[in-house]
Automatic annotation (TrEMBL), chain A:
<keyword id="KW-0067">ATP-binding</keyword>
<dbReference type="InterPro" id="IPR027417">
    <property type="entry name" value="P-loop_NTPase"/>
</dbReference>
<dbReference type="InterPro" id="IPR050095">
    <property type="entry name" value="ECF_ABC_transporter_ATP-bd"/>
</dbReference>
<keyword id="KW-0547">Nucleotide-binding</keyword>
<keyword id="KW-0378">Hydrolase</keyword>
<dbReference type="GO" id="GO:0016787">
    <property type="term" value="F:hydrolase activity"/>
</dbReference>
<dbReference type="InterPro" id="IPR015856">
    <property type="entry name" value="ABC_transpr_CbiO/EcfA_su"/>
</dbReference>
<dbReference type="GO" id="GO:0005524">
    <property type="term" value="F:ATP binding"/>
</dbReference>
<dbReference type="InterPro" id="IPR003593">
    <property type="entry name" value="AAA+_ATPase"/>
</dbReference>
UniProtKB/TrEMBL annotation, chain B:
<keyword id="KW-0812">Transmembrane</keyword>
<feature type="transmembrane region" description="Helical">
    <location>
        <begin position="231"/>
        <end position="251"/>
    </location>
</feature>
<feature type="transmembrane region" description="Helical">
    <location>
        <begin position="107"/>
        <end position="130"/>
    </location>
</feature>
<protein>
    <submittedName>
        <fullName>Energy-coupling factor transport system permease protein</fullName>
    </submittedName>
</protein>
<dbReference type="InterPro" id="IPR052770">
    <property type="entry name" value="Cobalt_transport_CbiQ"/>
</dbReference>
<feature type="transmembrane region" description="Helical">
    <location>
        <begin position="37"/>
        <end position="55"/>
    </location>
</feature>
<feature type="transmembrane region" description="Helical">
    <location>
        <begin position="12"/>
        <end position="30"/>
    </location>
</feature>
<feature type="transmembrane region" description="Helical">
    <location>
        <begin position="61"/>
        <end position="87"/>
    </location>
</feature>
<keyword id="KW-1133">Transmembrane helix</keyword>
């Protein structure tokens, strides 16, 4: 089929990644019309992002993969928004970043300030001073700036490569709300794993499998009705995924020991010598699953790091368990890796504690299977997929059977499959009598799993209450409670 | 980083850069200790009055310059050759000549630091690179490459802190001794570099997505041109050098007029 004037896309695309035997795309044909809004879905690593980069010409012109195709028709003017809010800018300030685009287009200097204001407005980024340093913006604002710079190219087509993967629910919703208006008259092609907000925006969904083959291409209704099993298999966040996985009620209530584990009194944590978060009184008991919620910058992570002793603090925060150190899982797992092999990584904590080799082997083998890491034991941790990295970092922390686990947004940026697997691990751990304390933005976790919620606002513990699940557990175990 | 805007920040950055580069080379030929003292003193005053840093940053920078100067002078003072011995202890010999030469080298280090600080404390990096592109025809790919790298530095600094905390959690501190230290440094290096390399790659692709390579004749958001401040700067700098030469012959503070001999 040859392409007509209003049609764009690729015909019989063949593409290989360097150092890989298998070809990523074998004779892939994908066409789209001007003005279409298309969502591409598929398991991570299936090549959706690469396909988008072919569709706009970044591959092979700037990213040199071997590519062959009968025909590639690229829209004349296009803009691209990338996943990582921090690495798609090259200038220091907001206005300079958009000006960079305008300079590339050779827009006269005099016209620039007006266009900058206009594009920022279109992208819903309202700043008092456009000369604001980019590093002072939140993730959501950075993605708006990225959209504004893409819009500055005056594009017919917008390519959005998981633009909300690194955003919290609030930022995600805001970005899609904005895009609905800003991209209304444009062709939009989207790769996304969180599709709650995208579904109302797109009119065509394309589904890929692990091998990079297109297995379905249809309307939103068609795909969600007929291919739900595929969406589950690929770990895609489709609407209603939580209900399908866990039903309508919170998780069952069973064990809740209620032995005090952490005692906090008049506790203040400092960052750069200024007090950032203060908690007057807090008692954490075994069997609790505590979620710390609050806006970005409220001090949730700071509290967690203070409890772990990673930041300077005053007041009392006592570990009453005395058995083990609390375990801590960082937001970015890569920072936590200290060896060059998955197997060494798992052993590390036990080796430095001089645990006997036979015990180590047993525990490590168990963890490898529990966290589905067995096929990767010889790989470098950095070479793992996003989900595997996260599972490895959690596995390392849980290997020593800690009584207290502190987790900083452990499900952030994870696909549905991985998230559910992690939550089950945490629940198992809680049932053995550990206290799970996690920072999260995901209200489904709060409602389904948490027994107790701490809400932090402007560095203060604003609310501290039991969830429905917490109350259930409380009624079952009245004698043992510490409140 | 620049807290105050003095008239020095209005000088064309490329011009300022060239003048200071010329001074660097010219000052290498000064072997008269008296001239060195006067030049350093006068530029130091210029820096104190017109630098753009806040007091705290300025003090730290000066302390750093001082430490560098002392370090570079000590080797010469303690181990240099000379006939008029002032002090002797085992290998350590201080002679009049080596003392003068050491002071001269120390002063030169300090002076070069001061000149660099004058430049850095009054020049915005963004404007400097814009000026290099417009006045000195630096290819944009280098200029924007540097600017993009500037963005990465604070991120690396932040990451460094996170890695330190993460290493603490993993118990890497328990690895003592040289081997443990080596392992620790290796971890920091690998993690920081891996993050930065991938970030740089992503930034490069993002810049291309904004049609960076497409532009043959760029326009510029910041226009850097020539102004009367450039002339004032040139005059001030030459006056300071000339004044120093005059003062060194009329008001010599030491008897050493040539430290090479």
């Amino acid at each position: 089929m040859s392409l007509t004037n209003s049609q764009y896309g690729v015909t019989r695309l063949r593409l290989a990644f360097p150092k890989q035997k298998e070809m990523q795309f074998k004779d892939l044909t994908f066409h789209y019309q001007k003005g279409e809004k298309i969502l591409m879905l598929g398991p991570s690593g299936c090549g959706k992002s690469t396909l988008m980069q072919v569709l706009c010409g970044l591959v092979p012109e700037h990213i040199e993969y071997p590519v062959k195709a009968d025909e590639i028709k690229i829209p004349e003017k296009w803009g691209y928004v990338f996943q990582d809010p921090d690495s798609q800018f090259c200038m220091t300030c907001v206005d300079e970043e958009i000006a960079f685009v305008l300079e590339n287009l050779q827009v006269p200097r005099e016209k620039m300030p007006d266009i900058i204001h206009q594009k920022l407005k279109e992208a819903g980024l309202h700043l008092d001073d456009i000369h604001t340093p980019i590093n002072q913006l939140s993730g959501g604002m950075k993605q708006r700036l990225a959209t504004a710079s893409a819009l500055a190219l005056d594009p017919d087509a917008l390519f959005l490569d998981e633009p909300t993967a690194m955003l919290d629910p609030e930022g995600t919703e805001g970005l899609w709300e904005m895009l609905k208006d800003a991209a209304a008259d444009k062709t939009v092609i989207i790769v996304e794993h969180k599709i709650d907000h995208v579904v109302n925006f797109v009119d065509r969904v394309v589904l890929f499998n692990d091998d990079g083959d297109m297995i379905a291409d249809g309307t939103v209704n068609d795909i969600f009705k007929n291919y739900q099993h595929k969406l589950i298999e690929y770990g895609i966040w489709y609407p209603g995924v939580w209900q399908n996985e866990f039903g309508n009620k919170p998780e069952a209530a069973d064990i809740f020991e209620g032995q005090p584990l952490i005692e906090i009194e008049d506790f203040t944590v400092y960052r750069k010598k200024t007090p950032k978060v203060h908690v007057n009184k807090l008692l954490v008991a075994s069997g609790e699953w505590i979620t710390i919620i609050g806006r970005n910058g409220a001090g949730k992570s700071t509290l967690l790091e203070g409890m772990m002793g990673l930041l300077p603090c005053t007041g009392k925060c006592k570990n009453l368990s005395d058995e083990t150190d609390p375990a801590f899982v960082f937001q970015n797992p890569e920072f936590q890796f200290v060896t060059d092999k998955v197997i060494d990584e798992l052993q590390y904590g036990l080796v430095i504690k001089k645990v006997g080799q036979s015990i180590i082997n047993e525990k490590v083998n168990q963890a490898l299977h529990q966290f589905s890491l067995a096929p990767h034991i010889r790989q470098h941790p950095f070479q793992l997929s996003v989900g595997q990295k996260r599972r490895l970092s959690v596995a390392c922390s849980l290997l020593e059977n800690p009584k207290i686990v502190l987790l900083d947004e452990p499900t952030f940026g994870q696909d549905a499959k991985n998230t559910f697997a992690l939550l089950e691990h945490f629940e198992k751990l809680r049932q053995t009598g550990a206290a799970v304390i996690m920072v999260t933005h995901e209200m489904e976790i709060v409602q389904r799993f948490a027994t107790r919620v701490l809400e932090i606002e402007d560095g203060k513990l604003k609310k501290d209450f039991l969830t429905a699940r917490g109350h259930l557990l409380l009624n079952k175990n009245e004698a043992g409670m510490v409140y | 980083m620049l807290t105050y805007h003095t008239w020095l920040s209005k000088v064309n950055p490329s011009f300022k850069f060239l003048i200071i580069a010329v001074l660097f080379i010219a000052l290498l030929t000064v072997h008269n200790l008296n001239t060195m003292i006067w030049i350093t003193g006068l530029f130091f005053i210029l820096y104190l009055v017109f630098n753009g840093f806040n007091i705290k940053l300025s003090s730290w920078m000066l302390l750093l310059a001082l430490i560098l100067a002392v370090l570079s002078s000590t080797t010469m003072i303690f181990f240099g050759q000379g006939t008029h011995i002032l002090f002797k202890w085992h290998f350590l010999v201080i002679s009049k000549e080596s003392l003068a030469r050491g002071c001269h080298i120390g002063l030169r280090t300090f002076l070069f630091s001061i000149l660099s600080l004058i430049f850095v404390s009054t020049t915005k990096p963004v404007l400097f690179f814009y000026s290099l592109m417009q006045q000195l025809k630096l290819p944009p790919k280098f200029a924007y490459g540097f600017l993009a790298a500037f963005r990465i530095l604070p991120m690396m600094y932040e990451e460094f802190h996170i890695i330190r905390a993460a290493m603490k959690v993993r118990g890497i501190e328990k690895n003592k001794g040289p081997k443990g230290q080596y392992h620790k440094i290796k971890r920091y290096a690998i993690t920081l570099l891996a993050q930065s390399i991938r970030r740089a790659q992503r930034t490069a692709v993002a810049m291309e997505a904004k049609r960076f390579s497409l532009a043959k004749n760029r326009t510029y958001y910041y226009k850097t041109g020539v102004s009367s401040y450039d002339l004032i700067f040139l005059l001030t700098m030459s006056m300071i050098v000339m004044l120093a030469f005059v003062l060194s012959s009329t008001l010599p503070l030491t008897p050493f007029t040539n430290v090479i001999e």
